[in-house]
Design goal:
- By secondary structure, the chain is mainly α.
- It has a domain of about 230 residues.
- Helix content is about 70%, strand content about 0%.
- It has 24 helices and two strands.
- Strand 1 and strand 2 form a beta hairpin.
- Helix 4 packs across helix 10 and helix 10 crosses helix 11.
- About 20% of the residues are buried.
Length: about 375
C-alpha cells in the first residue's frame, strides 16, 4: 500500500470511523428479563448484549468508570480529539453524542490530571512579579506564569469571535451559540492537552496552540487554508482584545478619579478595535457564502439540464406532426368502415332463398283433389 493510499484511507476513517453494523442472525439471551433478541441491546430492558457473570474485568470497568474509562470512554474521546478533533466536535454538536464522553465532565477530569502532571513533570517557571499592585496586575502575572490555565480562561473570550467569523462557513453553517459553547469546551480540553505536551517536550506552548486552533477549525468549518488562517488569527486577536476590555472594565471601580476618564477612553478603544474587525470579517464571510450559494445553485441547474435535455428543449419532436397524427393511415376509410362488405345485402338477406314458397309449402301436391277423390273410379 502506497503512502497516498494510506492517506486516503486515513481521511476516510476521519470522516466516518464508526461501524454500527451487527449480525441479525445471531440471537442473544438477556440475563435481566429473559428476552431473546438480535442486536447489541435488549429491546425490552435496554441491557447490553453479551453481559456475563461478574469477573475481574467487571471490577476493572466499574473502577475505571469513576475516571471516565468505562462506557463512552474518555480515553476514546481523547483519542478522537487528537486524530480527528474537528470532525469529532462536528459529530457531537450535530447529534452524534453516544460515542463521546460528556465534554464538561471531561474538562473537569482533564483539569485535575493536568494539575497532577504539571506538579510532577511540568516546567519550573520563575515566579513573575506583578508590575501593578492591583488584582488585575496579579492576575496577569499569574497568567504569564501559568500559560495553560491562562489560555483555558481565554477560551471563554473566543466564543463571540468564533460565532461571528465562522457563522457562514461551508461546514456547520449558521451554528448557534450553544453549539459554540461546546466547541469552546472541547477547545479548552485541547488547550490542556497541548499544555501537557509542552511540559514534556519543552516550552512550545505558544507555538503549538495556534497551530492546534488552525488544525481543528479547518476540519470543523471546512474553509481553505487561507480563509481558515486569517479567520483563526482574527479570532485569537479579537479574543485577546475582549479579554483586555473585560479587565479594563473590571478595574474601573478601583481607579482614581483622575485616571477614570483615561480608562474609559481605553475601554472604548478596545471595544472598537475588537468589535469592528469582527463585524468586517462577518460581512466578508456572508458575501463569500452568498457567492458560494449562487455558484452551487448554478452547478445544480447545469447538472439538471445535462441529465434531462429533452425536457427543456424538444423542438425536433414537436416539428413532426405526421408521426403523431398519422393522417395517411386515418385517410383510408375502406379499411376501417369496409363499406363494400356491408353493401352486399343479397349475401345477408338472401331474398331469393326466402322468396321460394314452392319448396316449403308445396301447394301443387296438396292441391291435387283428383288424385284423392277420383269420383269416376268409385262410381264404377
Amino acid at each position: 500500500m502506497t503512502l497516498k493510499e494510506r492517506y486516503k484511507r486515513f481521511k476516510a476513517w476521519q470522516l466516518n470511523p464508526f461501524d454500527w453494523s451487527f449480525d441479525e442472525n445471531v440471537l442473544h439471551h438477556c440475563e435481566n428479563c429473559g428476552y431473546d433478541f438480535a442486536g447489541k441491546f435488549c429491546p425490552a430492558c435496554s441491557q447490553k448484549a453479551g453481559l456475563k457473570k461478574v469477573s475481574w474485568k467487571s471490577v476493572f470497568h466499574s473502577t475505571a468508570e469513576v475516571w471516565g474509562m468505562g462506557n463512552r470512554s474518555m480515553l476514546y474521546s481523547l483519542w478522537q480529539l487528537i486524530w480527528r478533533p474537528g470532525y469529532f466536535i462536528s459529530d457531537y454538536i450535530n447529534g452524534k453524542r453516544q460515542v463521546s464522553f460528556p465534554p464538561v465532565k471531561m474538562l473537569v477530569v482533564m483539569g485535575v490530571i493536568s494539575v497532577i502532571i504539571d506538579s510532577l513533570f511540568g516546567t519550573k517557571r520563575a515566579a513573575v512579579v506583578a508590575s501593578d499592585a492591583s488584582w488585575v496586575g496579579h492576575f496577569f502575572a499569574w497568567l504569564e506564569s501559568s500559560p495553560g490555565w491562562g489560555w483555558l480562561i481565554m477560551t471563554c473570550f473566543f466564543i463571540l469571535p468564533t460565532w461571528c467569523l465562522f457563522h457562514y462557513a461551508p461546514r456547520n453553517t449558521k451554528h448557534t451559540l450553544p453549539q459554540v459553547f461546546f466547541i469552546t469546551v472541547f477547545m479548552a480540553i485541547q488547550v490542556l492537552i497541548v499544555d501537557d505536551i509542552a511540559d514534556f517536550f519543552g516550552d512550545y506552548f505558544y507555538i503549538l496552540l495556534p497551530l492546534c486552533y488552525f488544525y481543528v477549525y479547518r476540519q470543523l468549518f471546512g474553509y481553505g487554508y487561507w480563509g481558515n488562517f486569517w479567520r483563526v488569527l482574527l479570532t485569537l486577536g479579537c479574543g485577546f482584545l475582549l479579554a483586555a476590555l473585560a479587565m479594563t472594565i473590571a478595574e474601573l471601580p478601583t481607579v482614581s478619579p483622575k485616571s477614570f476618564a483615561g480608562d474609559i477612553q481605553a475601554a472604548i478603544e478596545l471595544l472598537c478595535s475588537s468589535v469592528v474587525p469582527i463585524l468586517i470579517g462577518m460581512l466578508i464571510s456572508k458575501i463569500t457564502f452568498e457567492r458560494r450559494k449562487k455558484k452551487k445553485a448554478a452547478q445544480n441547474d447545469e447538472i439538471s439540464v445535462n441529465d434531462h435535455p429533452d425536457d427543456n428543449n424538444p423542438p425536433e419532436e414537436d416539428a413532426h406532426p405526421d408521426e403523431d397524427a398519422q393522417p395517411e393511415e386515418d385517410a383510408h376509410p375502406d379499411e376501417d368502415a369496409q363499406p363494400e362488405d356491408d353493401a352486399h345485402p343479397e349475401e345477408d338477406a338472401h331474398p331469393e332463398d326466402d322468396a321460394r314458397p314452392d319448396e316449403d309449402a308445396q301447394p301443387e301436391e296438396d292441391a291435387r283433389p283428383e288424385e284423392d277423390a277420383r269420383p269416376e273410379d268409385k262410381t264404377q
